[in-house]
Design a protein that fits this description.
This protein is α/β, with parallel strands linked by helices. It has two domains: 4-155, 3-Layer(aba) Sandwich (Rossmann fold), CATH 3.40.50; 157-285, Hypothetical Protein Tm841, Chain: A,domain 3, CATH 3.30.1180. The chain is built from eleven helices and 13 strands. Strands 10-9-8-13-11-12 form a six-stranded mixed beta sheet, with helices on both faces. It has a four-stranded parallel beta sheet with strand order 2-1-6-7, with helices on both faces. Helix 3 packs across helix 4 and helix 5 packs antiparallel against helix 6 (144-154). The longest helix is centred in the middle third of the chain and has 16 residues, at 124-139.
Length: 289
């Protein structure tokens, strides 16, 4: 039986120690900030990134191209690995398509290898949650095919709910109108968004004030978990440099559901470029998105 590796991209927002400890391959989308390009070879701390955004810097992001994807995949093929790649939602980036192009080319050159690209239809730690589930299954000695089937069958049961602190960044990304951004800011309205079954980020409601918006995310978890409650042994929370808010959500969930295990991480710069400082996202398993 051939060995296999799980790979993903930096949109999964998984902590670097987790990536390293579990030998997860990771591709990198990049961004330009104040005229300089940042990627895995030239990185900027998340706190510095968000600090610059707060001071007015406007980052520009770019997707993975097929050549870069090919380089990353081929190094594992040369080591004799089959590959399961979990990609950032194709509805939010062309990166998944780039990896598919590279994988098809390499499949012709390495006919003995298996390369499967899974469109997570997710982002941030929602994508990370899917990767974590596959890592657990791999540790349980599940087969390559079992992992692929579980991922494609269950990705629609990974729920992602977000709120942001500044509507202006959503306006820049075309998520809300200018009028909505202006009026919402004046009356302290915070949007509640989620990633739908097609992998698109859509607005599903609003809350008056920051604390109410955070509690709304937890209420959504209560509404959506259903029969998956026992599967939520670990809850995933990502934040745009607002750790205290993430800790408030974590503590509230801990008290409400007696859940003790959490992965809390930054919303990485490429996603944060569009959602802005103060983004707070909650991810869990549920009946449906």
């Amino acid at each position: 039986m051939r060995k296999f590796i799980i790979t993903t991209d930096n949109m999964s927002d998984l902590p670097e120690p987790f990536i390293n400890e579990n030998n997860i391959g990771q591709m990198s989308l990049s961004y330009i900030l104040d005229g300089e390009t940042y990627n895995k070879d030239n990185s900027l701390s998340e706190s510095e990134f968000y600090d610059r955004m707060r001071k007015g810097s406007m980052p520009i992001t770019s997707q993975i191209n097929p050549e870069a994807a090919r380089i990353e995949l081929e190094k594992y093929l040369k080591e004799g690995y089959d590959i399961i790649h979990v990609a950032f939602s194709s509805a939010l980036s062309g990166s998944c398509n780039s990896v598919n192009i590279a994988a098809k080319e390499l499949a012709e050159e390495y006919p003995e290898a298996k390369i499967v690209v899974i469109d997570s239809l997710l982002a941030s730690l929602g994508q990370g949650l899917l990767v974590c589930k596959l890592v657990e299954m791999k540790k349980e000695k599940k087969s390559f095919e079992e992992l692929v089937k579980w991922a494609t069958d269950n990705r629609e049961h990974i729920c992602s709910y977000f709120t942001v602190d500044d509507l202006f960044h959503l306006f820049r990304g075309g998520r809300v109108s200018k009028a909505t951004a202006i009026i919402g800011s004046i009356i302290n309205i915070k949007p509640v968004l989620h990633i739908d079954k097609e992998g698109k980020l859509i607005s599903i409601g609003k809350a008056r004030g920051r604390k109410k918006s955070l509690l709304t995310l937890i209420d959504k978890m209560d509404e959506k978990m259903g029969r998956y409650k026992e599967d939520n042994k670990t809850i995933f929370i990502s934040h745009g440099d607002c750790l205290q808010d993430a800790q408030f959500v974590q503590q509230t969930i801990k008290e409400r559901y007696a859940i003790e295990s959490f992965i809390v991480s930054y919303v990485g710069p490429v996603i944060g470029a569009h959602s802005g400082p103060g983004t707070l996202a909650l991810f869990f398993m549920g009946e449906e998105r």
